């Protein structure tokens, strides 16, 4: 055989090794959801790649057989043929090196083949696979199926042997699902890469936050409830409907904790507009009552089945703590919205110096995400930023009082009676700048 032919064989073997290495990493690191989307779009390669990924043990055995065989053949050709030719050339052209020609020739040839194998057969193909895993997996899936068919008998032997050894070691293969943190990281990476828009990123994160929320963190609190008294005069009730403009109201007897039911404002207004007097008791519908410890998702399911889309939230003693409506849930998922022509005011505003001015009744976990304070909202003893402040002070604070936690400075800047209205949060970077 000519030297050119032998070198050509070695180059082809190295290229085939690179193809196997690229195929292995591409199929293993491909995102199944992305491959499924490509398959639905008509990509046959993506469908074949998914089939390979579903039986990773057999696929990896095929790759390993191929890489091992390539290594053996490349070593045989380089050591037995190319090194021999180079040895004779050194003896003829450089007589002074003749005593060392065999060792020197073998070292040079093995070094050159090793370098070529590392660059062309490993590193570059794997970098390509990492850069475009799904596309490379789809391109390589067809040829790899052919390689798998050829290597099937050897793969079966290796697969059975591997299973036997794993059973002897009492090791069982398990499917590991992605954790919430991994999903959040994947969403963040997709947003950074431009695959997801920032708005899509925020909505996905909001949905994941919502699944962990308790209803008490999203309800309209007791002090903000507009309710109707069953014993009030009708003209007072109508005036309240005009002033508050809600579509549904809790109906109570003398006090908010004596709940009677729910009334739909339209039922009252239809009668009033027809010129007739109304009987509030006859219009009251049963109230959907939920404990304040209930999960937000379970309350959403109850609201979907309820005849009136308003649930009254009570504590363990039966005292009314708030109400929750589909609007509260929508605000949790997509953010607050203005009502009745009012201007919407965000709960958290970032100031020019990097600090944040935040409403005390903002959900603690969401406030923590906004300002970058990990762990805020994980304590079940409070639901809002004001609750966190009270937990830290262990007494009712005064405006101007402050404390430091985790490098952040929290300062109460406004009190509405006994309620913490506004909190100034200074992140670590802004704190250093002030110093």
Describe this structure in words.
This protein is of the alpha+beta class and 435 residues long. It has 4 domains: 166 residues, no CATH class; 33 residues, no CATH class; 120 residues, CBS-domain; 87 residues, Uridine Diphospho-n-acetylenolpyruvylglucosamine Reductase, domain 3. It is 57% helix and 14% strand. The chain is built from 17 helices and 12 strands. Strands 8-9-12-11-10 form a 5-stranded antiparallel beta sheet. Helix 10 links the parallel strand 2 and strand 3. Helix 1 runs antiparallel to helix 4. The radius of gyration is 35 Å and the shape is elongated. It is a multi-pass membrane protein. Its main location: membrane. Keywords: CBS domain, Cell membrane, Membrane, Repeat, Transmembrane, Transmembrane helix. One of its GO terms (molecular function) is flavin adenine dinucleotide binding.
């Amino acid at each position: 055989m000519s030297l050119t032919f032998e070198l050509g064989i070695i180059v082809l073997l190295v290229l085939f090794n690179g193809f196997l290495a690229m195929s292995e990493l591409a199929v293993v690191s491909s995102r199944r959801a992305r491959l499924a989307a490509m398959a639905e779009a008509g990509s046959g390669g993506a469908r074949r790649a998914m089939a390979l990924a579903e039986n990773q043990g057999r696929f990896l055995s095929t790759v390993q057989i191929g890489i091992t065989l390539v290594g053996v053949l490349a070593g045989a050709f380089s050591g037995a043929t190319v090194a021999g030719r180079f040895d004779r050339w050194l003896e003829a052209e450089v007589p002074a090196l003749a005593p060392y020609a065999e060792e020197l020739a073998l070292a040079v040839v093995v070094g050159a083949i090793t370098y070529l194998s590392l660059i062309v057969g490993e590193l570059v193909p794997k970098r390509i696979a990492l850069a475009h895993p799904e596309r490379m997996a789809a391109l390589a899936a067809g040829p790899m199926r052919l390689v798998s068919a050829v290597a099937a008998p050897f793969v079966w032997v290796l697969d059975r042997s591997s299973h036997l050894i794993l059973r002897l070691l009492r090791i069982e293969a398990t499917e590991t699902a992605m954790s919430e943190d991994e999903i959040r990281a994947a969403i963040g990476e997709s947003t950074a890469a431009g695959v997801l828009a920032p708005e899509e990123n925020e909505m996905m994160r909001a949905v994941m936050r919502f699944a962990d929320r308790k209803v008490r963190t999203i309800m309209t609190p007791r002090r903000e409830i507009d309710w109707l008294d069953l014993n009030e005069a009708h003209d007072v009730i109508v005036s309240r409907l005009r002033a508050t403009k809600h579509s549904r109201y809790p109906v109570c007897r003398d006090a908010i904790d004596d709940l009677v039911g729910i009334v739909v404002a339209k039922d009252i207004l239809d009668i009033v507009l027809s010129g007739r007097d109304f009987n509030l008791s006859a219009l009251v519908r049963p109230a959907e009552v939920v404990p304040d410890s209930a999960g937000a998702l379970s309350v959403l399911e109850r609201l979907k089945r309820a005849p009136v889309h308003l649930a009254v939230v009570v504590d363990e003693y039966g005292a009314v703590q708030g109400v929750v409506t589909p609007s509260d849930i929508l605000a949790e998922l997509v953010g607050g919205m203005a009502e009745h022509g009012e201007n919407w005011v965000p709960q958290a505003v970032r100031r020019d110096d990097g600090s944040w001015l935040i409403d005390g009744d903002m959900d603690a976990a969401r406030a923590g995400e906004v300002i970058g304070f990990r762990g805020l909202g994980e304590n079940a003893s409070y639901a809002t930023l004001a609750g966190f402040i009270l937990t830290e002070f262990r007494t009712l604070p005064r405006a101007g009082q402050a404390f430091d936690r985790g490098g952040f400075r929290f300062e109460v800047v406004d009190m509405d009676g006994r309620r913490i209205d506004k909190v100034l949060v200074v992140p670590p970077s802004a704190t250093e700048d002030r110093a």
